[in-house]
Structure formats: structure tokens, C-alpha cells
Design goal:
Helix content is 32%, strand content 5%. It is mostly helical. It has one domain. Bound molecules: iron/sulfur cluster (SF4). The site of iron/sulfur cluster (SF4) has 12 residues, from helix 2.
Length: 88
């Protein structure tokens, strides 16, 4: 994937993530999503990356992993965002 497009997609996802209060996934939620991705034709295994959006995909609960951001969703609708209660 083109690096410029990848950066653009990442920044778009990051701004959305920040606007939603940066909700995180649990380890169980990350693994649920990851198990879908590794069976997907768009998963680029050697780069641990989605071939559609270019985002990093990992089974770890860490910041640079789209699967660990609860507000994110699969660009092909194979998995969805997870709603978190509003913070007070
Ligand atoms: S985010 Fe969606 S399209 Fe991308 S690899 Fe995962 S399941 Fe496939």
C-alpha cells in the first residue's frame, strides 16, 4: 500500500479515535477481531497489516493496533466498533 495513503488513513482513524475518547478493547475483544482478520483474504501476514485500510493488525493490546481501538471497524464490515458507556 502507498505510504502516503497509509499515513492518511492512519491519521483519519487516529482523529476519530481521539474524538471518541480513545476507547480501548479488552484482550478478548482484540483476539476476537484478530481471529477474523487472519482468515481474511485482505490480511497481509508478513506485515501484519490490512490490505484495504493499511492499518496495523496485531493480537496485542497496544496503541499501534487498530484491533485494540474499540471505536474502529473493519472496512469490509467483517467486525464492528464496540460501544463504550460515556465517560463522566
Ligand atoms: S480489517 Fe477487515 S478487511 Fe482488513 S484484514 Fe481485517 S477483516 Fe480483513
Amino acid at each position: 500500500m502507498d505510504i502516503t495513503l497509509k499515513i492518511k488513513t492512519f491519521l483519519k482513524s487516529l482523529f476519530f479515535h481521539i474524538s471518541r475518547g480513545m476507547p480501548k478493547c479488552t484482550k478478548k475483544e482484540v483476539l476476537f477481531r484478530y481471529n477474523i482478520c487472519i482468515k481474511c483474504d485482505e490480511f497481509i501476514e508478513n506485515e501484519s497489516q490490512c490490505g484495504v485500510c493499511g492499518c496495523n493488525l496485531s493480537n496485542k493490546v497496544r496503541f499501534m493496533n487498530k484491533l485494540a481501538w474499540a471505536d474502529q471497524k473493519c472496512p469490509k464490515d467483517y467486525w464492528f466498533s464496540i460501544e463504550r458507556p460515556n465517560r463522566k
